[in-house]
Task: structure prediction
Amino acid sequence: MILLGIETSCDETAAALLVDGTVRSNIIYSQIAKHAPYGGVVPEIASRDHVKKLPGIMEEALHEANCAFDQLDAIAVTYGPGLASSLLIGYSAARALSQRLNIPLTGVHHHEGHIYSVFLGENPPVLDGAFPMMVLLVSGGDTKLVYMKAPGRYEIIGQTIDDAAGEALDKGALLLGLGYPGGPVIQRTAEGGNPRAVRFPRGLDNVGGEWKYDFDRKLCFSFSGVKTALLYHVQNHPETLHDETAKRDLIASYQEAVADALAVRVERALEQYACASFACAGGVSLNKVLREKLGRLSEKCGVPLKLSSPKLCTDNAAMIAGAAYIKWAAGHPFVTPEDVNPNLKLANWDNT
Result:
């Protein structure tokens, strides 16, 4: 099975080639430099850049894998969730190419790609012994806990009720004048800082008040409070921003609060659910502090931890093709979506 993957859900233009589930090429063009002046992704800029870059990215992916278009067996493309105008570029290109080559096209949920990226690498994916698996999904504008009894069986047991972890890092970095994207710059700037210098809230720790969500409060996330606490701290202690040591300690403490809030919920989930393994997937899973916390948790509870390789943590097309391949190998046919869906929900395979 020679499978071309295409990903354009936000601000990365990506194409990848997988042969029988093994990654042969994974080309990513990042638009970060174009969006950095605005402190976030500008949808129109993103979609226009996808139009310009995608043809060349696909050519490069096939060239690196030493493959021609007429050798492809199928195409996988992200069709949601994401920015509508960006999703449409990748979907339109994939659909046109599948019709031109007369090969199947299948749509892939962006988060599903992140989940199965933990099984991808230089060898075909092996899922045996990994399930039931608890997944901390920290991708873009979303943060949730997903319990998987088997491949393609998803139960969301907790999620953020406001900002996602990635948004908290981006907004924190913007508030501190560090730049965009927030995750990498906060991690870099926090190096050597004291993570216990300032005590920030972990979100939803104080029991009380009305709880209107269907999930267990102890397994849900809230990052609006830590962001507000950072704002108030800067307002009350403006001198911190002019003292390099104090500023580094502040940033390290903020990063610690975000990572700790994530790790604590994972630990609670592992206490409540029987798991053969647990995983962390998505762009924020690159964070060094979070990885260290989850590694220690794995040693403490004796449950193996699965992490994507760094090059597969951020948005990429190998994870999209990988998810499609794993689903196909499990006996589920390729299904061509009628259109993109910016608000696409994660659905069990037998319900799609």
About this structure: The first helix runs from residue 32 to 35.
